[in-house]
């Protein structure tokens, strides 16, 4: 089956009821998110399984969107050659060396060349690549203010919050519940920092997936019949420096990374 040429092809598969159960305001918005590679088709709960299966070779990967994501990345890459490298260096909080823009991603150097190639000392995670390009191309470069906001308070975050909660906050909480040294270990591995506990949490840690896009995870330990909880916060400038789809990807990617660290340390994450 040929891959979709535009979001309308995906929209035609949907119920078109705009029921919002997927967290998007409309079926068209959901179709756009699938086309851009931000959402898998299977996340429309109203879609029959047989339709998803029938399109499994159109959207081929775990989440059914790898091909679309590759196309989007190629497009973003092609735009890099036109950027003003010096201005981008200032805007992104990076540095310029040998005609390459170098940006710290989780404390590690990510270098990008004029032709859009990325080189780094660490494995390039797909969840960071598209946000990285969007940050370089479209970020406003506003310095963080230290005023924290939840995902749902960011522009466009409210509709996506149920899914963000599931993919990011719940997943991180499950890891933290199973693996108590998680925060010490990930802080060391990824140049994060423990900060004074915020919002009356027991543990607060801040990471920098991108220089001007800090993410803070706050964890509340279980106590007297109350379950543990975990919330993730962003600086109030986050939605100026990155689009909400990319912010979603960073949060969900961070949760995946925490899960992998726990598994590497032999912890089974109980969900
Ligand atoms: S859940 Fe499906 S039918 Fe409902 S708004 Fe989302 S895409 Fe449309």
Short précis:
By secondary structure, this protein is of the alpha+beta class. It has helices spanning 7-11, 27-35, 49-54, 66-80, 85-92, 126-138, 157-178, 182-189, 238-241, 244-264; strands at 95-97, 100-105, 108-112, 118-120, 148-150, 193-195, 203-210, 213-220, 229-235.
Describe this structure in words.
This protein has 271 residues and is an alpha+beta fold. Helices cover 41% and strands 17% of the residues. The strands form two sheets. Strands 5-9-8-7-6 form a five-stranded antiparallel β-sheet. It has a four-stranded antiparallel β-sheet with strand order 1-2-3-4, with helices on one face. A hairpin with a 5-residue loop joins strand 3 and strand 4. Iron/sulfur cluster binds next to helix 2. The site of iron/sulfur cluster has 14 residues, from helix 2.
* Helix vs. strand class: alpha+beta
CATH architecture of the largest domain: 2-Layer Sandwich
**Oligomer kind:** single chain
Spell the H/E element sequence.
HHHHHEEEEHEHHEEEEHH
Strand order of the largest sheet: 5-9-8-7-6
Instruction: Look up the CATH topology of the largest domain.
Output: TATA-Binding Protein
Rough outline: globular
- Unique ligands: iron/sulfur cluster
The percent range for strand residues is 15-25%
| Rg over alpha carbons | 19 Å
Q: Tell me the major beta sheet.
A: 5 strands, antiparallel
Which spans have pLDDT < 50 for at least 5 consecutive residues? Answer: 60-65
Look at the structure and give the CATH class of the largest domain.
Alpha Beta
| First-last Cα distance | 36 Å
**Quantity of strands, as a count:** 9
Number of helices: 10
The helix content, as a percent range, equals 40-55%
């Amino acid at each position: 089956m040929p891959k979709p040429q535009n979001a309308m092809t995906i929209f035609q598969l949907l119920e078109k009821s705009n029921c919002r159960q997927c967290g998007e305001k409309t079926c068209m918005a959901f179709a756009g998110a699938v086309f851009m590679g931000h959402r898998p088709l299977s996340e429309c709960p109203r879609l029959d399984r047989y339709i998803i299966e029938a399109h499994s070779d159109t959207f081929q990967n775990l989440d059914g969107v790898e091909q679309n994501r590759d196309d989007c990345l190629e497009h973003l890459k092609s735009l890099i050659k036109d950027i003003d490298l010096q201005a981008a260096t200032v805007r992104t909080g990076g540095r310029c060396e040998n005609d390459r823009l170098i940006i710290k991603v989780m404390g590690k150097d990510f270098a990008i060349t004029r032709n859009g190639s990325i080189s780094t000392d660490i494995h390039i995670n797909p969840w960071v690549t598209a946000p990285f390009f969007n940050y370089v191309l479209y970020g406003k470069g506003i310095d963080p203010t230290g005023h924290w906001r939840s995902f749902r308070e960011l522009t466009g975050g409210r509709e996506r919050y149920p899914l963000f909660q599931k993919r990011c906050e719940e997943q991180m909480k499950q890891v933290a519940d199973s693996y108590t040294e998680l925060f010490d270990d990930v802080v060391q591995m990824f140049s994060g920092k423990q900060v004074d506990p915020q919002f009356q949490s027991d543990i607060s840690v801040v990471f920098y997936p991108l220089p001007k896009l800090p993410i803070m995870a706050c964890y509340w330990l279980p106590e007297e019949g109350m379950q543990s909880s975990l919330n993730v916060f962003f600086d109030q400038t986050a939605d100026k420096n990155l689009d909400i789809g990319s912010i979603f990807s960073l949060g969900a990617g961070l949760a995946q990374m925490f899960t992998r660290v726990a598994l590497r340390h032999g912890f089974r994450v109980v969900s």
